[in-house]
Amino acid sequence: MDKPRKVTMQEIADRVGVSKYAVSKALSGKPGISAATRGKIFEVASQLGYLEQKLGKRLLNGKQLDEDQDKLVGILIPNIRSQNRDSGYWGKILDGVFKNLEASGTSSVLITDDLPRNFHKVMRPDGLLGIIGIGLINSSMLVDLRHIGVPFVLVDHEDDLVSSDSVFMNNYDIVRKQVKYLIGKGHTHIQFVGDWRFARSFSDRWNGFKSALEENEISYIPDRALLSIQPTMHPDNLSLIKRSFEHIKHNNLPTAFVCANDKIASLCMRAMEELGIRVPLDTSVMGFDNDLDILEEFPELSTVNAESEELGIKAVDMLLRRLTNTHMPYEKLLLQSDLIIRSSIATPRVATLSSNSYSE
Of 148, 152, 150, which is closest to residue 163 (Cα–Cα)? Predict the structure, then answer.
C-alpha cells in the first residue's frame, strides 16, 4: 500500500499566499501573524491533513502506551461558564474521568487554563499521553495540541476546524422524546428556552425540538428573546428573562416550555413564580441534566437524566483506544439517556390562557 503523501509547510504557504516562515510562526503559536491570516493557515493545514499528519508521526515514533507509564493524561477544563469541579454537571464528568484513569493505572493532571502560552509554561507536551478536553475549549488550543502531536478527546464539545474523537449525550433524540411526550399530554403550544449558540449540545437540543414539532405538523414561531437566554446569573441575562416572561404573561402563554438545561429551567421558574404564573397549572416546564444542585430548589422539575459521569468514563476509553489505534477514523460517541417525569408537567388547560387570567 502506498504511503500517504506528506504535506509540507510550503504547500500550506502556497495555498494561503504567505511565506513558509509565516506558516511556521502561525502553527507554533508565535506572535507576529494577524488573527485573520493565522485562522486561514489553520484552516488550510486542517483541510490538507497536516495537523493529523503531525499527530500520527508522534504516535508512531515508539510512543506506545505500555512504554509511557511515567506520562500523564491532561484533563483540560477551562474555568469558564461554570465549567468547574463544583458544578453538578461538569463535576460528575470529571469524577468519571478520574475514576476510569485510576482504574487503568494512568496518572493525570488537571489543567484549568486553555491558553497555549500558559499551557507550555506548566506542561511539557512530551510528558503527556494525551488530553481529555471537557466543555468549551479555545480553537487555538486544539490546533496547538494537534500541531505538537498530542492526541485528545473532547467531551460535550467539537470544533469545526480540528477533527477529533468526541463524546456527547444524544441531545437531539432525547429532546425529540421530550417534545413527543408533551404532545402526547395534549400540548401543542410549546416554546424552547435557551441560546442555541451557547454550546453544541444546546444547538442539538434546539434542532431536536424543532424536528419533533415539524414531524407532528405543529406550527412553531420561535420567541427570539427566549432563544437568547443563557445559563448564567449575569444581571443582563436575569433582566432578559424577567422581561420575556412579563411580555409572555400578558399575551398567549405557551402551555409548555422545553429548556436547554436545568439551570435555565430554574431561572424561568423563578421568573414565573414572581409573576404569578403557576407550574404546572398554567404551564409545564422541562429541563435537561437532572442537576442535583437545581433539584434542591425545584424538586418538581421534569428533566433528562444526563449520564454525566459516564461521559467522562467513555472519554478515557476513547483516548486509550486512540493511543493504540492511531489510524482509525475519528469517532463521535452518543450516549442515550432517559426522561425523568416529575410534577412540573400536567395536561394543558382546555381554554387558551389570556391576559385576563393574570390580572392582579
Answer: 152
Best CA proximity match to 175, nearest among 308, 307, 336, 291: 336
Taking only Cα atoms into account, the Rg of the chain, rounded to an integer number of angstroms, comes to 23
Residue 286 has which C-alpha cell?
Answer: 422541562
Among 133, 137, 198, 202, CA closest to 167: 133
Count structural domains, the chain: 2
**296 and 191 both lie in a single domain:** yes
Nearest residue to 44 (alpha-carbon basis) of 159, 143, 120: 143
Q: Which pLDDT tens digit goes with each residue over 159-183? A: 888 889 999 999 999 999 999 999 9
Same domain, 254 and 329: no
Q: At what angle do helices 235-249 and 262-275 cross, to 10 degrees?
A: 50
**Residues of the domain holding 128:** 71-163+311-336
Element holding 335 (H helix, E strand): strand 332-335
CA distance 179 to 192: 10
Q: What is the CATH number of the domain that holds 159?
A: 3.40.50.2300
What is the H or E stretch that residue 97 is in?
helix 90-103
How many other CB atoms are found less than 10 A from the CB of residue 242? 15
Report the DSSP beta bridge partners of residue 86.
none
For the stretch 262-315, pLDDT in tens is 999 999 999 999 999 999 999 999 999 998 889 999 999 999 998 889 999 999
Nearest CA to 58 among 115, 105, 128, 132? 128
Query: Taking a C-beta distance cutoff of 8 angstroms, is the pair 316, 97 a contact?
Result: yes
Q: What pTM was computed for the model?
A: 0.74
Cβ atoms 65, 160 nearer than 8 A: no
In a domain, 28, yes or no: no
Please tell me the total number of residues recorded for the chain in this structure.
360
Of 253, 254, 281, 251, nearest in space to 349 by CA: 281
Q: Specify the range with the lowest mean pLDDT, choosing from 163-172, 206-215, 238-247.
A: 238-247
Between CA 204 and CA 196 the distance in angstroms is 8
Cα–Cα distance for residue pair 98/312, rounded to 1 Å: 8
